[in-house]
Amino acid sequence: MMAAQSNGIPGILGECGGQAMCATCHVYVGENFIDSLPACSEEETVMLEETASVRKFNSRLSCQIHASDELDGLVLRVPSEQLW
Hints:
By secondary structure, the protein is low in regular secondary structure. It has a single domain (2-82), classed as Ubiquitin-like (UB roll) (Roll). It has helices at residues 2-6, 42-48; strands at residues 26-29, 59-61, 76-77. The protein has a three-stranded antiparallel β-sheet. The radius of gyration is 12 Å and the shape is globular. The chain starts with a helix and ends in a 7-residue tail after the last strand. The mean pLDDT is 92.
Protein backbone atom coordinates (compact mmCIF):
# COMPACT_ATOMS: atom_id res chain seq x y z
CA MET A 1 0.00 0.00 0.00
CA MET A 2 2.75 2.43 0.95
CA ALA A 3 4.66 1.74 -2.27
CA ALA A 4 1.51 2.28 -4.34
CA GLN A 5 0.73 5.56 -2.60
CA SER A 6 4.34 6.75 -2.88
CA ASN A 7 4.26 6.10 -6.61
CA GLY A 8 0.87 7.64 -7.38
CA ILE A 9 -0.99 4.42 -8.16
CA PRO A 10 -4.66 5.41 -8.45
CA GLY A 11 -7.27 3.58 -6.40
CA ILE A 12 -5.16 2.78 -3.34
CA LEU A 13 -6.46 5.15 -0.68
CA GLY A 14 -5.30 3.43 2.49
CA GLU A 15 -7.46 5.68 4.66
CA CYS A 16 -6.59 3.78 7.86
CA GLY A 17 -2.85 4.04 7.28
CA GLY A 18 -2.27 0.32 6.90
CA GLN A 19 -4.13 -0.95 9.95
CA ALA A 20 -6.46 -3.33 8.03
CA MET A 21 -9.46 -1.30 9.19
CA CYS A 22 -10.93 0.30 6.08
CA ALA A 23 -10.51 -1.91 2.96
CA THR A 24 -9.70 1.12 0.76
CA CYS A 25 -6.52 -0.61 -0.44
CA HIS A 26 -8.26 -3.73 -1.77
CA VAL A 27 -6.39 -5.43 -4.63
CA TYR A 28 -6.50 -8.62 -6.64
CA VAL A 29 -3.28 -10.63 -6.40
CA GLY A 30 -1.82 -12.24 -9.52
CA GLU A 31 -2.67 -15.94 -9.38
CA ASN A 32 0.96 -17.08 -9.53
CA PHE A 33 1.68 -15.31 -6.20
CA ILE A 34 -1.36 -16.26 -4.11
CA ASP A 35 0.46 -19.10 -2.38
CA SER A 36 3.51 -16.89 -1.73
CA LEU A 37 1.57 -14.61 0.61
CA PRO A 38 0.86 -15.40 4.26
CA ALA A 39 -2.71 -16.32 5.11
CA CYS A 40 -5.15 -13.50 5.79
CA SER A 41 -5.46 -12.46 9.41
CA GLU A 42 -8.90 -12.44 11.00
CA GLU A 43 -8.95 -8.63 10.73
CA GLU A 44 -8.11 -8.72 7.02
CA THR A 45 -10.73 -11.39 6.39
CA VAL A 46 -13.41 -9.24 8.05
CA MET A 47 -12.39 -6.13 6.08
CA LEU A 48 -12.41 -8.02 2.78
CA GLU A 49 -16.15 -8.52 3.35
CA GLU A 50 -16.54 -4.71 3.35
CA THR A 51 -14.83 -3.86 0.04
CA ALA A 52 -16.43 -1.56 -2.52
CA SER A 53 -15.84 -4.17 -5.21
CA VAL A 54 -16.50 -7.89 -5.42
CA ARG A 55 -14.37 -10.05 -3.15
CA LYS A 56 -12.64 -12.76 -5.15
CA PHE A 57 -10.46 -15.74 -4.23
CA ASN A 58 -7.40 -13.56 -4.82
CA SER A 59 -8.59 -10.47 -2.92
CA ARG A 60 -6.21 -8.99 -0.37
CA LEU A 61 -5.65 -5.69 1.37
CA SER A 62 -2.47 -4.23 -0.07
CA CYS A 63 -1.54 -2.82 3.34
CA GLN A 64 -1.07 -6.38 4.54
CA ILE A 65 1.32 -7.34 1.73
CA HIS A 66 4.87 -6.58 2.76
CA ALA A 67 7.46 -6.22 -0.01
CA SER A 68 10.18 -8.86 -0.02
CA ASP A 69 12.56 -10.54 -2.43
CA GLU A 70 10.18 -13.52 -2.59
CA LEU A 71 7.50 -11.24 -4.05
CA ASP A 72 9.69 -9.83 -6.82
CA GLY A 73 7.46 -9.65 -9.91
CA LEU A 74 4.20 -9.62 -7.96
CA VAL A 75 1.32 -8.17 -9.96
CA LEU A 76 -1.59 -6.54 -8.14
CA ARG A 77 -4.69 -5.25 -9.89
CA VAL A 78 -6.85 -2.47 -8.49
CA PRO A 79 -10.58 -3.19 -8.86
CA SER A 80 -12.21 -0.88 -11.39
CA GLU A 81 -14.70 0.37 -8.77
CA GLN A 82 -11.79 1.94 -6.87
CA LEU A 83 -10.31 3.83 -9.80
CA TRP A 84 -11.13 7.48 -10.20
